[in-house]
Design goal:
Layout (H helix, E strand, L loop, with lengths): L2 H9 L8 E2 L9 H14 L3 E4 L2 E3 L2 E3 L3 E3 L3 H12 L3 E3 L1 H7 L11 E4 L4 E5 L2 E7 L12 H12 L6 H11 L1 H8 L5 H19 L1
Parallel strand pairs: 7-9
Antiparallel strand pairs: 1-3, 2-3, 4-5, 6-7, 8-9
Helix pairs in contact: 1-2, 4-5, 5-7, 6-7
């Protein structure tokens, strides 16, 4: 079986709508040969190229046509391939949690790897290195989303109302996981005060 045939066989096993990287097929042959085979399949319409070295078997929707993954999922796929950890930026975290209506013009992520830009389709994504590993805890999970929002708000802007909105948005289990993270004292204090306050209200 040729490299191209092996890749085509493997591709049929992959779920539609889930991004994958070139390294998924490294066992089938040299990188250059794999790249050429994937490029041919892109030209045939079997897969779509999302970014350099990142592809997807698109899902088809009768109304909108091809449905491809969102930016965050593509970035996480690239991160896994590189062995890095990425966390969504706090401004976007606030929007997703319903604490802001402002959408960042340029998608930004914090990363354990080097700072750089990534081109995904016609969108430029900024990757900003952080040496503070505490910012990257529970990346890709609701607790990590909430943590990113709190870091972005900071001590002076994290109000009891904001904490209550965060808990309502992520749920009790994720909120408990959030409280288990390694966080600054001010963050621990404000979350603890919220828990004490809700407990007192429940008893009353």
């Amino acid at each position: 079986m040729s490299v191209a045939e092996a890749i085509r066989t493997d591709l049929r096993k992959l779920p539609r709508g889930k991004p994958f990287t070139t390294s998924r097929f490294a066992a089938h042959g040299p990188r250059g040969t794999v790249d050429r085979a994937l490029s041919r399949i892109v030209e045939e319409g079997g897969i779509e190229r999302l970014a350099r070295g990142v592809f997807v078997r698109p899902r088809r929707n009768r109304y909108v046509g091809s449905v491809v993954p969102g930016i965050a999922e593509i970035v996480r796929t690239i991160a896994r391939d590189n062995g890095e950890t990425v966390q969504i930026h706090g401004a976007e975290a606030l929007r997703r949690l319903g604490l802001s209506t402002q959408a960042p013009i340029v998608p930004v992520f914090h990363t354990s790897a080097s700072s750089r830009t990534i081109r995904i389709g016609n969108i430029t994504v900024r990757m900003i290195h952080t040496s503070n590993r505490r910012r990257l805890q529970f990346a890709g999970e609701p607790a990590g989303l909430a943590l990113a929002a709190l870091w972005y708000l900071g001590k002076d802007n994290t109000t009891p109302e904001a904490v209550a909105r965060i808990e309502a948005a992520i749920g009790l289990d994720a909120f408990a996981k959030l409280r288990s993270t390694d966080m600054p004292a001010w963050m621990s204090d404000v979350l603890g005060a919220h828990v004490l306050g809700t407990g007192a209200a429940a008893r009353g």
